[in-house]
Amino acid sequence: MAVEFSPETLKRFEETVGRYPKKEAAMLPVLYLAQGEFGYLGSEAIEYVAKLMGLSPARVYGVVTFYTMLNMKPIGKHHIQVCRTLSCALAGAEKITELLKAKLGIRTGETTPDGRFTLSEVECLASCGTGPMMQINDDYYENLSKEKIEEILRSLK
Amino acid sequence: MEKILLRNTDVKDSHTLAVYKSRGGYRAWEKVVGGIFPEQLIEEIKASGLRGRGGAGFPTGMKWGFVPKDSPKPKYVICNADESEPGTFKDRLLIERDPHAVIEGTILAAYAIRSHTAFIYIRGELAFGAKVLQRAIDEAAQAGYLGKNILGSGYGLDLILHRGAGAYICGEETGLLSSLEGGRGWPKVKPPFPATHGLFGCPTVVNNVETLAALPWIVDHGAAKYAAIGTEKSKGTKLFSVSGHIRKPGVYELEMGYPLRQFLEVDCGGVPNGRRLKGVIPGGVSMPVLRGDEIEGVRMDYESLQAAGTLLGSGGVVVMDESTCMVKAAWNVARFYAHESCGQCTPCREGCHWMEKIFWRIENGQGQPGDLDLILSISGNITGNTICPFGDAAAWPAAAFIKKYRDEFEAHIAQKKCVVSA
Questions:
Q1: Are residues B30 and B151 both part of a single domain?
Q2: Contacts A–B by Cβ distance under 8 A
Q3: Shortest Cα–Cα distance, B332 to chain A (Å)
Q4: How many CB atoms lie within 10 A of CB A103?
Q5: Which residue of A has its CA nearest to B268?
């Protein structure tokens, strides 16, 4: 299956590239466009982006593998990312992760069989004063407790 | 104390142009663009004594002064909004609650070096902050504070919001440049410095969010008024992010030189649950920890914290009470650096993982005699031997945890278990 942008995304690609002093500088926004369009950045998507950017696939692959927010595999509809760094750890982040593992029946780094949830542990999300906390897709959930987690999971169903 | 950086953050709808303007916003930019030369602006900021708030503390006006005036190349200003230092969440507050102060500061910095393209590099995870900033940029452009021929001055500036994608190292200024150039966020060898060879080899200034957000107030009220606040070498106010075992965590604005003990015990309400203070990291986890009995007389400024054997860094204050296992805390911090090392320099790429593995085995009852000296040796071999300060940032806290709490580490190794929670 060949991957390519829809006409609308292709237009956004042109606009994005046009804003930067050099085309290569648009690499991350273009990869975000591709991830939004294709769900993840597999080898076909990487080759497609390379062609659009006029770069080698190896060059794009090097970028994709460097950044944690660029996914080379499909992820769940809700990507739960629990902060594990010092301040959140002092506030009990480990218990939050254990609770989520038990609730979802998966280990960290895994996706539920129905594809709804992916669970990850991540490093500091700049929300240290309101730990333990997690990010689900774009949203922050702070001052977490067992009750709050249950409520959040229910709301995402 | 008059608030400078948090002057707007508690006001309703502070993120909007209307509220920002009603509180004196863009007055500084109108004044500057209406008849102050870039050189005068640089002199004014030099006179204010403002130093970079991202961690390194380099004088801001001097940094701008290094940009060549006669370069035929384009010049760039980048607002470093890649806040990722563990324990630090002050820039996020400014971005979400006072985005126009960040934008106005970025505009002033761009004007000072005659740049016509500026970027705000925001860490990818801050999706909400990016939305708030983009809306504010659009409002500012609509009102004529950005774009071509600003307020009829003939000066033009385009401001581009650029989202990172998850990498701590992109907060290091040359790592940020590599990332913005479309590559892996690998730091570059200095010299040459970004002021002459920055983004795409062009003269570039990279300033932290908090540094830039201070500029409108300084321009509006005058450098002398700013320089009257703080200590001899640490002028003005600074934001501190407080987290961990503390009653009132959050972001605080303090006059430089404020006593650390008073700050923790009075302003932040002290350590909860009747526990004693065991340690505090004053400047983000890259900086050496202070024991609870070391904070007496320490002040929150560049020189006092340095004299105490640590650094002001980003102002991320992490508080640990007596129930904290320092082996586990040290392992947590070491794991962070092992995860975030960019992999470019061998001492850091290998050393961070070794330190993490050794801390892990001590934590899990498999520590061996000699492990502590082994970590100190690895730490010593990383320090000063890497392209960027990340190596030091990983090596210092590891060594400090061991030196400050050696008895606890040795007991943990000998008894093959945690001696704090037991």
A1: yes
A2: 138
A3: 6
A4: 14
A5: A129
